[in-house]
Design a protein that fits this description.
Order of helices and strands: HHEHHEHEHEHEHEHEHEHH
Number of strands: 8
Oligomer: single chain
Strand order of the largest sheet: 1-2-3-4-5-6-7-8
Helix content: 40-55%
Shape: globular
CATH class: Alpha Beta
Distance between the termini: 64 Å
Number of domains: 1
Structural class: alpha/beta
Strand content: 5-15%
CATH superfamily: Metal-dependent hydrolases
Number of helices: 12
CATH architecture: Alpha-Beta Barrel
Length: 333
Amino acid sequence: MTKRALTTLTLALLSFTAALPQTQTQPPPARAAKYPPSGDHHQHLFSPAMAVFQKITPIAAADVIKLLDEAGIERAVLLSTAYAYGRPGREPQNEYEKVKEENDWVGAQAALYPKRLVAFCGFNPLKPYALEELERCSKIPSLGRGIKMHFGNSDVQLQNPEHIEKLKAVFRAANAHRMAIVIHMRASISLDRPYGAEQARAFLNELMPLITNTTVQIAHLGSSGPGYDDPKVDAVMDVIGDAFEKRDPNTRNLWVDITSNAFPGNPPERSAMMVKRIRQIGPGRILYGTDAALGGNLRPRGSWAEVCRLALTDKEIKQIARNRPPYLPESER
């Protein structure tokens, strides 16, 4: 090989190496260890039956506890994915029985670590059994703190008056039982459902006035994950962010989590948008979350490190780390 060819190859290799993701080689920021989150507000378990149904790996409470310990996180909320059995077009036989079985399994897993884990039940809010399952879960100590809904998976459409009426019934019942609500609000991506200012206003003006005794948590900063490069989310968060800035009464009981949004693949402008949204909402209403330990999702330690790489001040990072919603009391360890 000639000297010129060797030089060309060396430069090409250097260029290729520089383009590789640096997440595995970059040390976590010092403030990631200095200000560990008090809680992980968005975790998932999957029973063996659910894992078979979704063709994924089962995750038990012990697996989450190990990840929390590695990240120095005391507590977590386990959000049941029982709603997956109610996904339109994919419902199994004995659908409601399977929903109950998954919720009960997640609740039983949380009960193995009562000082560190709490569980929320999950269901499709449009199903005929939705209110029945909410009532049932409200009476089970390991499940009575809250519910998880996934608007994308359940094909909830906030511009649909019939859907709004069914959601109102769920919100009223949750409020009556003081059950917190975590919502994956992003409309179905696979079906390309509308998702913009109209949907955000319907959520704020039609549903949030019903919440007076509990809290609602919008997941993924209004988007999904991992990452924050969603072409539709900005129109939604313009409305939500503006409402927080104006101290709209409908944001009084509203929190927002940033689960899996801080991600190595985000373009710089999208990381900057995350910072903008966090400041619009106010760091005091932002919750840290990790998401399921599957696939391309970062694990808690790496995920929190990515949050700490955002262009936020130490004061803002410390505030987010110590935020604790009413449903997740301080650890008794």
